[in-house]
Design goal:
With about 90 residues, the chain is α+β, with helices and mostly antiparallel strands. It has a single domain, classed as NE0471 N-terminal domain-like, CATH 3.30.2020. The protein has helices at about 30-35, 45-50, 70-75, 80-85; strands at about 5-10, 15-20, 25-30, 50-55, 60, 65. A hairpin with a 5-residue loop joins strand 5 and strand 6.
Length: about 90
């Protein structure tokens, strides 16, 4: 199971993420913020910066938008999470 351990703001719509696998990297979420209507409030950079890790831990924002750790892991590392593909 992939778990998100830490998230730090970088710049723009980029975050540095660390996973329980020991892997980490920077992810640019610009495309997702434009893709999903629920993410529209996050186009305000001050709202974007209010991210937090919820109890799952999932990357979440007060507006209700969230992103699963598995999808973030795939974007950061380029590796497929096998059970997601089945």
């Amino acid at each position: 199971m992939i778990e998100l351990r830490e998230a730090k703001y970088q710049e723009g719509y980029k975050l540095w993420l660390s996973f329980n696998t020991g892997e980490s990297g920077v992810i640019d979420l610009t495309d997702l913020l434009h893709k999903y209507k629920a993410a529209t409030p996050l186009l305000d950079i001050n709202e974007f910066k209010k991210f937090y890790l919820d109890e799952w831990p999932t990357l979440a924002w007060p507006c209700g938008f969230d992103l699963a750790p598995e999808s973030l892991y795939e974007r950061v590392t380029g590796k497929r999470v096998e059970w997601l593909a089945n």
